[in-house]
Write a structure and sequence with these properties.
mainly alpha, 6 helices, about 120 residues
Length: about 120
């Protein structure tokens, strides 16, 4: 794979992560936690986007090691681990953890991704 192809893949993964973080947060914006815990459609939409984030993080770690190493502030292993837990143990997904992740971790992740994408990866609106 050429350097240009590798850069394009990295940019694509980061864009997908940013978009998925934005979507997950939008889905629960203004929604109380108790409503989220009973709304399967919103739960599934949020979980899907968290899985997308984790899959993209795993690919970055595997295919773009230098980039991942250069950005240790981004929780690569945690995102990958959460994705694996949701994919391989779907019936055991703790929706309280999903809620807390969207409320507490995704705003920080979004900020981190914006910082690294400001150097050339297109921002999603």
């Amino acid at each position: 794979m050429s350097d240009d192809e590798a850069k394009a893949r990295l940019d694509n993964y980061l864009s997908h992560m940013l978009e998925a973080a934005q979507l997950a947060r939008q889905y629960v914006q203004g929604v109380p936690k108790d409503e989220f815990l009973t709304d399967r459609r919103t739960q599934q939409a949020v979980v899907l986007n968290l899985m997308t984030i984790g899959e993209a993080a795993a690919r970055i770690v595997n295919e773009c090691k230098e980039f991942a190493t250069a950005h240790p502030e981004i929780p690569w292993a945690q995102m990958r681990g959460m994705r694996n837990r949701m994919v391989h143990g779907y019936f055991d997904v703790d929706l309280n953890i999903v809620w807390d992740t969207v409320q507490s971790s995704l705003p920080q992740l979004e900020a981190q991704l914006r910082t690294v994408t400001d150097s050339g990866v297109p921002r999603l609106s």
